[in-house]
Amino acid sequence: MELIRRRDMQVDGLGAAEGQDLRLDEIVPDYLEDLGARVTPHHLKNVRGKLDRALAEWGQKRVRDLRQTDAVRYRNALSGSGLSNRTVNLHVDVVRAMLRWAVSAGVIAENPLERLRSLPYGRDQWVYRRRALSDEEIGVLLAASHKDDDENYALASLSEVHRVPQTPMWRLFLETGARWNELRQLTWGDIDLGRALIALRAETTKSRRQRAVPLRPEVVDELVRLRARHESVVGRLPNREDRVLLSPEGRPWGRPTTNPMRILDRVLVRAGIPKVDRDGRKLDIHALRHTFASRLARGGVGLVHAQRLLGHSDPKLTAQVYTHLDVEDLRDAVGGLPSLGDGAAKAKEAR
User: Which CATH fold topology does 2-125 show?
Assistant: First the structure.
């Protein structure tokens, strides 16, 4: 029966049946080598890390011995460590993606995790919940950031040191809805001050697609001032390849958000805005992107335009972050409805 099964699988083009006897860790090197030619180094590093964690559990298992119950137990362990359903799904999906690649490459015949259903991921399953700033909080935050920049600039001037202000960075996040990794790699060559546009390059965006975001006049004016400040800090006028966002000391920001988050935390304290509200929702750098989405919703911008501005590949993702409207926004919406008594009065007049 086994010989007949193998023959039928090969006739049907399902791959090498003997590959089912391979151990999972024997597939990884070839998969990562192929994947590395198609993704960024950072993405490859993330995949390798997740595979290493899974292989610590399953590395010696052969493909034919891997069961969906193994994946379920692994997911339960990850969930028990405090990870969200979305993150848990990502850990399992990297293994499933590797096995799919092995099937398509003819290395194995079947993917034992192909029919595994992902854990649900909705608001009820979110572990880390963010909130959007209100328009009033935005004004208070930017005012506090200006004061923070002025104080630090004054202290640095005593030592004849110039510092880069950070308020333009927060304004760019709030005005563009860009992600941290997109804005930190923004160069002066990506900005068209004449047309008031920034171009987020495909190699920096999550979707790997370039998108353009219009800028309001006040943002353009702030960028012009920022460029002049860069000249005093770096000692020369920035060129097209230079980064737009620099640390207070004038160095390009790295990928980790620890240091910029320290600055934002300090500004939040100065502004009197709690980092965590009564519902447990938090404010961080990515929450500024959610704030941009909420401002679009308040302004009546349609979902399609919001999707393009936010750079989402799926409109469902836009819908998830396009709902950060607080009670006062809803109150304004209800308040705009005509009074019920007006309709009755008009009907009476018509009679």
Answer: DNA polymerase; domain 1 (1.10.150)
